[in-house]
Amino acid sequence: MSATVTDICRRARAASTVIRELTTEVKDQVLREMADAIDTAAEDLKEANARDVAAAREAGTSATLVDRLTLTDKRIAGMTGAIRTIIDLPDPVGQVVGGRTRPNGLRIEHVREPLGVVAVIYEARPNVTADVAALCLKSGNAAVLRGSSIAQHTNAAIADVLAEVLRARDDVPDDAVQLIRDTSREAAMELLHADGYVDLLVPRGGPSLINTVKDNATVPTVIDGDGNCHVYVDASADPARATDIVVNGKTSRPSVCNAVETLLVHRDLAGDWLPKALDTLQGLGVSIRGDERTREVWPAAKEAQDSDWETEYLDLILAVKVVDGLDEAVRHIDRYGTRNAEAIVAQDYDVARRFALAVDSGSVFVNTSTRYSDGGEFGYGVEIGVSTQKLHARGPMGLESLTCVKNVVWGSGQIRVI
Amino acid sequence: MSATVTDICRRARAASTVIRELTTEVKDQVLREMADAIDTAAEDLKEANARDVAAAREAGTSATLVDRLTLTDKRIAGMTGAIRTIIDLPDPVGQVVGGRTRPNGLRIEHVREPLGVVAVIYEARPNVTADVAALCLKSGNAAVLRGSSIAQHTNAAIADVLAEVLRARDDVPDDAVQLIRDTSREAAMELLHADGYVDLLVPRGGPSLINTVKDNATVPTVIDGDGNCHVYVDASADPARATDIVVNGKTSRPSVCNAVETLLVHRDLAGDWLPKALDTLQGLGVSIRGDERTREVWPAAKEAQDSDWETEYLDLILAVKVVDGLDEAVRHIDRYGTRNAEAIVAQDYDVARRFALAVDSGSVFVNTSTRYSDGGEFGYGVEIGVSTQKLHARGPMGLESLTCVKNVVWGSGQIRVI
């Protein structure tokens, strides 16, 4: 078994040298064929999925996870829809993102190029297999996919459909998209150490997967980490807007990484806006953990502990702190934030502008909801994930995050004297 | 001792929240004062340096290293000249590098921002202390510097001069530039593990330093790795140009990472151009390691071993291989190259264009020398290093490589329905 993963990665590397030179026309045509083939194979995919679902039920898997795993006609349509969205996106490969002509006549171009081999480790959702394959192909990369054992028959069935499309074409390598069918921990570890073959590994999943990758990977990674997101409501905020943005951030989908976890409120709003906003949130089922000044104006709040400022609840719970102003809000976010997404509600021009500049996070939202921290909402089509690191990519990651920028220097015989 | 490095990094992180918001005007003024202060302190710096040089001589350090360590008036002028060059460079912070307005009216901007805390570990050259301090400050980052013990008095003296400038100003934190004065291995290890404080660590030095960082660092790094650089001379090459570019790449400064190590020659040139070029190279003191086809036309070549294709000689030695054409050249580079810098000499338009596209390297040079793989030659002023990785930055790294791109989203009350 152990040789297989490295072998897959080696074949991916060989394929990548061909894929990087494919034209957008060819790549889009292959993607069209893949979407069509998935549509055609819908019944087979549901059959394979039924085996995974039955096994998961038998193993006592939670209803949430079983739901996430289940392939319906609607989800298959979502999968092919995502591929067709990716077809419509501009090809990042070959984009000239900068450059100059030097005094000696050398013309330097900074050009987007594929990374080479992109590996993705992911959990239950079977749509990731098709999404990632399509994103990698569009960006000129070979894809190595490693789903979880719970979805193994589904993932294999989808990978088989994609492989069939690739085999039918002479111009695209069969190894452009490969699934690691060995779902053991050893196989995953081998992938994390496939140095020299894998140019980027992206983990898509919960904290346990992320931490395993963080602690073990020796291949380059981009981490989609925690989302301890903040909203700061300034004294100058439009009150209705502030309520909308906090309610949307906390309640529209509490389990996702761009949901709000901490509300910071200017002290001038503590007497009036804050209690009304907390009443509204409570009415929507949100539990409040407040600091002392919050509890003075809204005694129903549970007392916030230090740990609350660090917690990504992913639930209908909100930590609330009254601050003296912008500076304290910025310092709080700098200390406790996870650099994912933060918002300000403010009508004061200088305050809004300074928050946008001073807060060090993947995305900063001014007078709008952190829930927009999302590849689709950013216009990237399907997202690879949301980076919480600073190098290479920040915030929602689209096709560009699967590329690097190479220097091409066009000369006319120049040589360097020293 | 052990607490000191973490404490320095913690202070750097605190300082970074102020430095990120400094205007270009203020940063440039501080840099001007630093350059002036170094000029004024020249005699003190040379005195401190004399202690390091004496200790190095006593310890039997090689003449090359002692030379590298020695501070002369010319080198001090070079140091202040570099700072003044950095003053003249555009400030990368705040550059809007992309963006769009979404159908719902959200305006998304991709904005360059400082990374936060940049640490650099470096070896003998004392100019690095001033260079890196200036690059970090200009790009809005706090700098943590860790030079080697051989230059400890010199580095401390330079750091003292810079600290004096910072202390005299109220608007820039004293901790903007800090030198780790503990030159023990333990202190270096502590820096490599300063997670949460250091946003980027760049090692500047030889393979042993690079490998220590690669193997141990848990903080984010950009690696300036080996330079096994290639020149491919195509059948269509202008012969004189080809000779110039190969000779320049091999002989102008053999010990640097952008020097050429392997020459790949189209078989059509094996009978005529190649032997003449090798005669020229031999006349300049270059030893040739040739493959079989090379030795057929130039029997004086030593037989190349497989290991020769992987070796960065950093010396007057050149590996030479005759290839059937572009494809074989590209495959050879893909297999043995270190993705630093590669060149082609070709008059054929399609061949030149395809090499530029197909070769996966930090920089690809068409009809010019790999010796131009250099921050100064790229117009970046002083370079941080030359990246041989793909993520974040490729090839020569300038000020931009010390920044990241944040998303700022300007709204007018938008909330997300799902």
From TrEMBL, chains A, B:
It comes from the Bacteria. It is found in: Cytoplasm. Its EC number is 1.2.1.41. InterPro entries: Ald_DH/histidinol_DH, Ald_DH_C, Ald_DH_N, Aldehyde_DH_dom, Glu-5-SA_DH, GPR_dom. Pfam families: Aldedh. The keyword Oxidoreductase applies. The keyword Ribosomal protein does not apply. Residues 3-292 form the Aldehyde dehydrogenase domain. It catalyses: L-glutamate 5-semialdehyde + phosphate + NADP(+) = L-glutamyl 5-phosphate + NADPH + H(+). Pathway: Amino-acid biosynthesis; L-proline biosynthesis; L-glutamate 5-semialdehyde from L-glutamate: step 2/2. Keywords: Amino-acid biosynthesis, Cytoplasm, NADP, Oxidoreductase, Proline biosynthesis. It is an enzyme of class 1 (oxidoreductase). Belongs to the gamma-glutamyl phosphate reductase family. Catalyzes the NADPH-dependent reduction of L-glutamate 5-phosphate into L-glutamate 5-semialdehyde and phosphate. The product spontaneously undergoes cyclization to form 1-pyrroline-5-carboxylate. This is Gamma-glutamyl phosphate reductase. It comes from Streptomyces plumbiresistens. The lineage of its organism: Bacteria, Bacillati, Actinomycetota, Actinomycetes, Kitasatosporales.
